[in-house]
Specification:
Blueprint: E1 7-9, H1 13-36, H2 43-46, H3 48-74, E2 80-82, E3 86-89, E4 97-100, E5 104-112, E6 115-122, H4 125-131, H5 135-148, E7 152-154, H6 163-181
Antiparallel strand pairs: 1-2, 2-3, 3-4, 5-6, 6-7
């Protein structure tokens, strides 16, 4: 079924460049800490193992951010599509892709460390997780499910839409599909 009223949301070049800048900065700071081994007064932070483990983790986060953001900058396809069938989410590295309205149990706003997300609670989240062929992505989805009750969430960090506008559209479309069932 083709939906003539699909809503396509694209990536925001400005927001993505800002994310790319911070990813590069994160990478540079992590390399600097590894190379120069700066000392601080805090005994825990100054611990060689903790300092280097945090720096190596920072390297991976920075590289991952650079890779993902650069990939999104050059991708001209919509990041989120909302239509009569459901939601196509490609907003993050662990996005589920197509989520059917009939599989959605609830859509809610959550906040994690001052960052707002639209959490999509699924009736059978394991069905979506088991379809993922990439082991790392599947494990991240399982971790999201365990920590927040769902593997599906959307952040507007790199999108050309405000958080509240996207949340309102998703909730309205979800409620319309629920009303259509009755």
């Amino acid at each position: 079924m083709e939906d003539k009223e699909s809503i396509e949301i694209f990536g925001s070049t400005g927001k993505l460049i800002k994310l790319l800048f911070f990813s590069i900065l994160f990478l540079i700071v992590s390399i600097w800490i590894l190379v120069y081994q700066p000392t601080v007064r805090n005994v825990i932070v100054n611990n060689f193992i903790i300092k280097n483990a945090a720096s190596i983790l920072g390297l991976f986060i920075g590289l991952f951010g650079i890779y993902f953001t650069t990939k999104k900058l050059f991708d001209k396809k919509p990041v989120v599509v909302i239509d009569a069938i459901g939601i196509i989410d490609n907003s993050s590295a662990v996005s589920l892709g197509r989520i059917l309205w009939e599989d959605i149990d609830a859509i809610k706003e959550i906040t994690v460390v001052n960052q707002k997300f639209i959490k999509i609670y699924l009736k059978n989240p394991e069905d979506y997780i088991s379809k993922e062929t990439n082991v790392m992505k599947r494990n991240m989805m399982k971790m999201n499910l365990k920590q927040s009750g769902s593997p599906a969430s959307i952040s507007v960090n790199g999108l050309k839409i405000s958080f509240n506008d996207l949340k309102d559209i998703l909730i309205q479309k979800f409620e319309e599909t629920q009303a259509g069932k009755n």
